[in-house]
Specification:
- With about 240 residues, this protein is of the alpha/beta class.
- It has a single domain, classed as Vaccinia Virus protein VP39 (Rossmann fold).
- Helices cover about 20% and strands about 30% of the residues.
- It is built from six helices and eleven strands.
- It has helices at about 20, 75-85, 100-105, 180-190, 205-215, 225-240; strands at about 5-10, 10-15, 30-35, 45-50, 55-60, 85-95, 110-120, 135-145, 160-165, 195-200, 220-225.
- The strands form two sheets. The protein has a nine-stranded mixed beta sheet with strand order 1-2-11-10-3-6-8-7-9, with helices on both faces.
- A hairpin with a 5-residue loop joins β4 and β5 (about 55-60).
- α4 (about 180-190) crosses α5 (about 205-215).
- The protein is globular.
- The termini are far apart.
C-alpha cells in the first residue's frame, strides 16, 4: 500500500484507509487514543403498546451506520497498535459495555493500567422500559507488559471519570457517535505530553485530532470514511467547535 497523507498540516497527518492497513506503516507514536467502533450496530425488535390499541413489534435503533457493522475488532487492531507504541506508550480506548470483554482480552501482551468513565448528566431514554438508562460510557488504559507507563502529572489530579453532557447541537457535526470535545481533551491532556505524537486509528469526525492540536500535540489520524475525514479537516481548519 502506498501511504500518502490525505491531509498534512500543522503537526496533524490524516490518512484515508483501513486502520489495519495504515497503522503498521506510520512509525512509532507516544500514545494511541481512540473511540473505535463498538461492533454493536444491530437493530433490536421492540414491542410498542399503541395507547391500548394493538401492540406493534418493529425494529429500532442501535444502527450506527456502515462503520460499525462488521468493523475491525480490538483483537485485530490492538496488537498492531501495541507494536506502534514507543517505550512507555499507552493505548487509551473507549468500548461498549456489552462487548468490553473483547477489548480486555484482545492482546495478552497488554496490561490494564486503569479504567475511565464518561458520565452523562442527561442520558438518552432507553428503548426498553426496563433497567437503567445508559448514563456512562467507559474504556481502559493499557500499557505493554513489563513497561512503565507515562502519565502527564502536570495536568493535575483528576478522578477517573469526566462529567459532561452529550454533544450539543452547536457541536454536532454529523457523526452518530461523536464524543464531546472537552471529554477528548481531558484524555489527551492526561495521557500525553506537549509535542508528543498521538494516533487515533478510528478518527471519525476528528475530535481527538482537534483536541491534540489545541493542546500542542501532533496527531496521526486514520479514517475509512472519506466523508468523515473531510468533516475532521474542516474542524481542524476552523479550530475548536464548541
Amino acid at each position: 500500500m502506498n501511504l500518502t497523507p490525505y491531509y498534512d498540516r500543522d503537526g496533524i497527518t490524516l490518512y484515508l484507509g483501513r486502520c489495519e492497513d495504515v497503522l503498521p506503516q506510520i512509525g512509532l507514536v507516544d500514545a494511541i487514543i481512540t473511540d473505535p467502533p463498538y461492533n454493536i450496530g444491530t437493530p433490536q425488535l421492540i414491542t410498542f403498546d399503541n395507547h391500548g390499541q394493538a401492540r406493534q413489534r418493529r425494529e429500532v435503533g442501535k444502527d450506527f451506520g456502515v462503520f460499525d457493522e462488521g468493523a475491525v475488532g480490538p483483537e485485530t487492531w490492538m496488537p498492531i497498535a501495541r507494536s506502534t507504541l514507543k517505550e512507555g506508550g499507552v493505548i487509551v480506548s473507549f468500548y461498549g459495555a456489552k462487548a468490553m470483554e473483547r477489548l480486555l482480552t484482545a492482546d495478552k501482551d497488554l496490561q490494564v493500567i486503569q479504567d475511565f468513565h464518561w458520565i452523562k448528566p442527561a442520558p438518552a431514554v432507553p428503548m426498553r422500559s426496563v433497567g437503567f438508562s445508559w448514563g456512562t460510557e467507559s474504556g481502559y488504559i493499557f500499557r505493554r507488559a513489563g513497561e512503565k507507563h507515562k502519565h502527564n502529572n502536570d495536568a493535575g489530579i483528576s478522578p477517573n471519570w469526566f462529567l459532561t453532557h452529550r454533544c450539543s447541537n452547536n457541536e454536532m457535526v454529523g457523526h452518530p457517535t461523536q464524543k464531546p470535545f472537552e471529554l477528548a481533551r481531558w484524555l489527551v491532556n492526561h495521557w500525553s505530553f506537549p509535542d508528543q505524537t498521538i494516533c487515533d486509528p478510528f478518527l471519525g469526525s476528528g475530535t481527538f485530532a482537534v483536541a491534540a492540536k489545541d493542546l500542542g500535540r501532533r496527531c496521526i489520524g486514520i479514517e475509512i470514511n472519506e466523508g468523515y475525514l473531510k468533516i475532521a479537516i474542516e474542524r481542524l481548519r476552523q479550530g475548536v467547535l464548541l
